[in-house]
Amino acid sequence: MSVIVHIGEVLAQGLSIGVQGDQSKAGQELTFSLTQEKGLTEETIYTWDFGDESDEVEIKGLDAAGTQRYTYASDGHYSVRVTASNEGGRNSIVIDVTIGTPPSPGSEKFIGSDDEKEKKRATGLGVGLVILFLVVILVVGAFIIVFFWYRKRYVNLEGQYKTLRAGTTGDPMALSISASELQEDIGYSKDSEADDTRLVSDDGEL
Q1: Where is this region: Disordered (predicted)?
Q2: How confident is the model at residue 65 (pLDDT cuts 50, 70, 90)?
Q3: Tally of CB atoms within 10 A around 187
Q4: Spatial distance between the Cα atoms of 119 and 74, rounded to a whole number of angstroms
Q5: Secondary structure in 3-state letters for the chain
Q6: Does the domain spanning 7-99 belong to CATH 3.90.180.10?
Q7: Residue 141: is its pLDDT beyond 50?
Q8: 103 pLDDT band (50/70/90 cuts)?
Q9: By C-alpha distance, which of 92, 89, 95, 93 is closest to 40?
Q10: Where are the domains of the chain?
């Protein structure tokens, strides 16, 4: 006598997981409950995986495996999976559980990261201030050089203008100064003039 097994009647179907307990922080015991709508239950192996790298738990029969208590050691997101296996096949159900307030992706901070950022920011600020100081010194130095150069040129031009103006107005002192300067320029002196005069008188002719 042969026995015909209909997979649809044996395979565990309509699995669902419920969870109760305080999920606001780690260290609180949670109660997980498993229900099944169709399929065999007594000969089915139920495997619980709580998603935190702990060992899986295998229990035979829904009566024994239907209620599980578990405590998470740290905050985080966990995927709880239950796999039901029997001669009709295998079926699974997964739910996500969040414990506490885990950090969002990309917001993790490493020890010393803030200090390193502050050091880099301070270094950049110091370099910028040094560069600014050097630029200010160069600008001020260039201004001083240009100022004194123009001042010296202005004084020279002013002196030449006064000499020229005095000469055109008939100032004897200015004219004598101009004559002296002219003699120095052409290499003429009174001594050389006196020598030429004596030579002319001795010969009696030019």
Answers
A1: 186-206
A2: very high
A3: 7
A4: 33
A5: CCCCCCHHHHCCECCEEEEECCCCCCCCEEEEEEECCECCCCCCEEEEECCCCCCCEEEECHHHHCEEEEECCCCEEEEEEEEEEECCEEEEEEEEEEECCCCCCCCCCCCCHHHHHHHHHHHHHHHHHHHHHHHHHHHHHHHHHHHHHHHHHHHHHHHHHHHHHHHHCCCHHHHHHHHHHHHHHHCCCHHHHHHHHHHHHHHCCC
A6: no
A7: yes
A8: low
A9: 89
A10: 7-99, 121-175
pLDDT of residue 3: 40
C-alpha to C-alpha distance for 124 and 83, rounded to whole angstroms = 57
User: Using alpha carbons only, how large is the chain's radius of gyration in Å?
Assistant: 54
pLDDT greater than 80 at residue 159? no
